[in-house]
Structure formats: structure tokens, C-alpha cells
DNA sequence: GAGGGGTTAAGGAAAAGTGTTTAAATTTGC
DNA sequence: GCAAATTTAAACACTTTTCCTTAACCCCTC
């Protein structure tokens, strides 16, 4: 059966990093270049992000599309819009205005610039009022 | 930046399965064989398992070795032993006796036979009192 | 035993991921 | 500003995954 996403090399680097070693020190220990250690560490962190995203997807399986935040929208107007759409479907959003804005930005920081939506964001909702973004 | 672990094909199949379609029905919709749908679904589930395992590893990064359950030990005596070791380190185990035994067996069924430990089991603990086995 | 749902095995072609090096940025801490 | 630490890019060999087909097999239920 399959192992986790991280290679032995990646785990090795993460463990040493956790102990506080620099990439240079690790490079010496595992006999390679510090650039390579950097690449491996970066790949490890990407793999961890991928693992998180994969499990996030499972939640969206239970969720249905609620609406789209279109590029250019003022982020501060998003909650009101989302609440309205949810009400149309008889669903209650689990988050208050502030939490909602934070969740939006935390989930996809690169999709926002200041108060503005830079790129369309799809909003999904499940029966519990949990929101997911895609 | 990387996407999640699941390919578009895998997500597609999981969505249809969630809706209750059979592999045969999905095969017709996406124009392939049912054997292929089965393979894709299986790969998807493996990827999800890998994602879970990957995040599990992160916890072990924070954990320290607590003790070893040696081969031959009575499984029913393990919790008491583990509690004692945790107390030595000023840590409180998060699980009660029953949960702990279940967690042990669920994590590594092949390491136990009846009430007996067949093979040494390393116990790790983090600051939250979560336990991990290796 | 036939039919439906699911699984497995073998094999192949295309795509994606990994570890590595070298060299060039970029960031960070005095 | 210097030096150390970190990051990035490009390229290469190598391994693994994916998707696909075909054909067979298992477990039900009727």
C-alpha cells in the first residue's frame, strides 16, 4: 500500500529543520548542496499544502455551488451578497461578517488585493452552512 | 502552484459516485470502461489516504518518544504504563483507557494478537497529549 | 446459471514528480 | 554594506502516476 506524500528525503529535511538546523548544516549532513536542501524542503511544504487541499476537496463533495464573487468586487460587500444567496437557498451561513472576510482571505490570499477581488472566486456551501472556496 | 492530489478525472468520478451512480453508469457518461472507472476511483481513494497520512506525519514532528511497549506485554496493562510514563514527563494523555486500547489496535492491528503485543511498539506524545505509534 | 455491480491483472503511452547540479538572485541579521 | 541564509531557474536522468484497453474473476440476487 502507498505511503504518504512525503519522500524519505523530504521527511529527513523537515525533521532537521524542526530541530533548528540551517539548510547549509543539513546539506553537509546528507551530503548534498544547500540549494538542493532548499528545493527538497520547498517540495515537502508543497506536498503538505497539496495534502491539505486534497482533504478540503472532500468537504466540497457535500457542498453545492452557492455563488461567484466576480473579479473587481469589493471584499467588504461579499458577506452581504453571500448571505443573500444563502437565504435564497434556505441555508444559513455559519460565519459572521468578520469571520467570513477572514476566511475568504486566508483561504486564497493571492486572489485578493487590498479590498478587491482580483480573480473570480467560487463559493460552495453545505447543509451545515460551512463555506468552501474554489 | 500545485493543485491538490486528485486529478480532474478522479474528482469527476468521486462526484458521480457521491450522487449514487454505479461505475457502469459513470463509464457511459465519461466514455470509458467500467474497469477504468474502478481504477480511477481506487486511485482517488488511495490519494485521499495518502493525504491523510501526510498530515499525520506532521503531528509526529511535534511529538517526542514516550516509551516502548515491549513484545509480550499484556495490551490491557499498556494504558496504565503509558499514563505513568506521561506523568513522569508532566504530560497528560488525551485518551481514556478504552479509547487508548482501541487506538493502539486500530493503528497497527498486525502488531497485536489477542491481548498480547507481538512486536515492540514505540509510543510518541505531543504537548496536547495526542499519541502516535511507530 | 445469467446479469449486475465491483475488482484485479497485465501492458502501454503520455504526463508528472524527484533528486540533483550549477549559477544567479533575494532576504535577513549584524 | 557584508556575509550568511534562503530562494529561484534551468536542465537532465530517472522513477512513478495516470488513463486507457482487454480480459478475467468474485459476490450477490433473481
TrEMBL record, chains A, B:
Residues 51-133 form the DNA binding protein Tfx C-terminal domain. One of its GO terms (biological process) is DNA-templated transcription initiation. GO terms for molecular function: DNA binding; DNA-binding transcription factor activity. Residues 6-48 form the RNA polymerase sigma-70 region domain. This is Transcriptional regulator. It comes from Methanoculleus sediminis. It comes from the Archaea. Pfam families: Sigma70_r4, TFX_C. InterPro entries: RNA_pol_sigma70_r4 (IPR007630), Tfx_C (IPR029291), Tfx_DNA-bd_arc (IPR004645), Tfx_DNA-bd_sf_arc (IPR036657).
